[in-house]
Amino acid sequence: MRIIAARFNHETNTFSPVPTPLENFGPLHGAAALEFGRGSATAFGAFIDYAERMGAELVTPLCATANPSGPAARDVFEALAAPVIEAAREGCDAILLDLHGAMVAEGIDDCEGELLARIREKAPGVPIGVALDLHGNITERMVQNCDVLAGFKTYPHIDMRETGAHVARMMARVLEGAGRPWVARVHPPILAQTLRMNTEVPGIMADLIDLAREIETREGIWAATVFGGFPLSDIPDAGVSLVAVADDASTAQAAAEELGEAAWQGRAGFVYEEAPLEVSLAEARAASGGGGGGPVLLLDHGDNCMSGGTCDTIDVLRAALRAGMRGIVAGPICDPEAVAQMHAAGEGNAVELRLGNKVALPGFPENPPLDLTGDVTFAGPGRYVVRGPIYTGQCCDMGRAAVLTTEGATVLVTERPHEPWDLGVFECAGIDPVSADFLILKSRMYCRPVFEPLCRAVIECASAGITSSNLDLFDFRKLARPIYPLDPISSK
Ligand SMILES: [Zn+2]
Predict the structure, then answer these.
(1) pLDDT at residue number 393
(2) Distance 134 CA to ligand 1 centre (A)
(3) Is 104 within 8 Å of 71 (Cβ atoms)?
(4) pLDDT for the residue numbered 6
(5) In angstroms, what is the span from residue 68 Cα to ligand 1's centroid?
C-alpha cells in the first residue's frame, strides 16, 4: 500500500497588497515534510498517523502553508504543485490532501480545483481524499476531482486534525472495498461575513454545523460540511457552499440541498452590521475600570493578519489615544521601517516615530501614519512558540521586534505581519498584555481562545483595512452576481 499525503494551504485575499512569495509557504518535501507534519494538529498530521498505522509506504511530497495574503504568482503555484503531481504520476493507492479551498494564484482562480484535476489526470482511478478549511470557496471542479471530502466544523479552527482523521476514515472505507461515494455540492448565492461564522456562539453558523452533524449520523451519509467561504476573494465561486458525501448521488444531493435551504433561510444571520469606530471605543471605555477582570479587548478586524491584512493600519490606536484612552497595549503592528529605526536607537532611548499606514491599500483613500514619541523599551527578535490551542508547538517568527512605550500606550512593532496566537506574541518582547486596561489586537477570531477568557470584554472595532467587514468597500468584478447581501435578491 502506497499513500501520498500532502499539505498545500493558502487563503488568498484577492484584494490584499501583501505579497505571497514562495518562501512564505516554507515548503518542505519528503522526510522534512513528514517530520514537520507528524503529530501536528493538522489534517496532514492525521493523514500521516493513518498511513503509519496502516503500515503503508508513505510519500510526503509537500508540506507548504502561507498565511493569508494576496494572490501568489503563477510560478509559485506551479513550483508547489509540481512535486505532488509528480508523486501521483509515479503511482500510489490513495492520495490524501490537506488543502484550504480558497487559494487563488495569478491566472488561476481555483488553485485547489486545478491541482486536483491535474492529479486526477496523472493518476486516474486513484482515490483522492481532501480536507478543507471552513473558509474554502468550494467549486464544482474540486468536487468533481476528488472522492471523499470534508471541511472543518469549527471557527476558530480547533478541529483541523479531527477533520483529517474523518477524511482518512472515509478513505479507509474506500480502500476496504466500500466503493466510491458521491460528492454533492450546493452553492446558494450568499457572500457570508467571516465575523458571522464563529461556531462558538449561537447563530446561523452554529445552527448549520449542528444540522451537518445530525445529517452525518444518518444512514448512507459519509460527511456533511458547511463551508462559510471566504468573502474577500473576487472569484466567481466565492461564498457559502454545502457539501455532502454519501453512498449514492440522490442521498448526497438531498443532504447538500437540505443544508443549502437552511443556509438560505438563515442568510440574514451571515450579515455583519459594523458599528462606527467611535461607538465601539465608547463601549470599550464604558466596559473598563474596576479592579481585576483583565483588559478590554479591542479587535481591529478590518486589518486581520489571518485574512490577508497588512497589519499596519493605525486607525484604532489613533482613535483610542485621541479619545483619551490610556493603559493601552497594542500590536503587533507590522512596520519594518519603524523597527529598523527603533533598533538603531536602541533600548532605553527616545524616538520619534511615524508608525503604520505605510502599505498602500488599493481602492482605499490615503491615510497618514501616526506620529508618536516615546522610549524604545525592547529591541530584539520577535520569536515564540505557540502554547495556545491553535498551531500548538509551532515556532513563530515575527522578524525583528521592538516596543515603543509612549504616553498611554505600549506598542509592539514587528517586521512581519503576525496573528496574535497567544500571549507569547507580547511576552517575547517583555510585555504583559493582561495587565493592560485596553488591549488592541489585529485579529478577528484566532486570538479568541486564548485572549477572550483573560479579558473583561471583547469589542469589535471597524477600521478601513483590506479585511474590512464592510463588503461595499471592495470592487468585485468576477464574483457571480446577483449575490446576497450585495444585490437585491429574493430567491436562490
Ligand atoms: Zn479558515
Answers:
(1) 83
(2) 5
(3) yes
(4) 98
(5) 9
Å from CA of 415 to ligand 1 middle? 24
Strands 350-355 and 370-385: antiparallel
Half-sphere exposure of 455 (CA within 13 A, CB side): 28
Query: Which parts of the chain register pLDDT below 70?
Result: none
pLDDT of res. 82: 98
pTM over 0.85: yes
Alpha-helical segments (H) within 130-159: 140-144
First to last CA, the chain: 45
How far does residue 135's CA lie from ligand 1's centre (Å)? 5
User: If you measure from the C-alpha of residue 348 to the centroid of ligand 1, how many angstroms do you get, rounded to a whole number?
Assistant: 40
Alpha-carbon span 165 to 171, nearest angstrom: 10
* 197 alpha carbon – ligand 1 mean position (Å): 10
Strand spans (E) along 123-253: 128-132, 148-151, 182-186, 221-227, 241-246
The rounded Å distance from CA 157 to ligand 1 centre is 7
DSSP state, residue 174: I
Which pLDDT value is given to residue 392?
Answer: 82
What is the largest distance, in Å, between two alpha-carbon atoms of the chain? 70
176 CA distance to ligand 1 centroid (A)? Answer: 32
- The one-letter amino acid code at 200 reads E
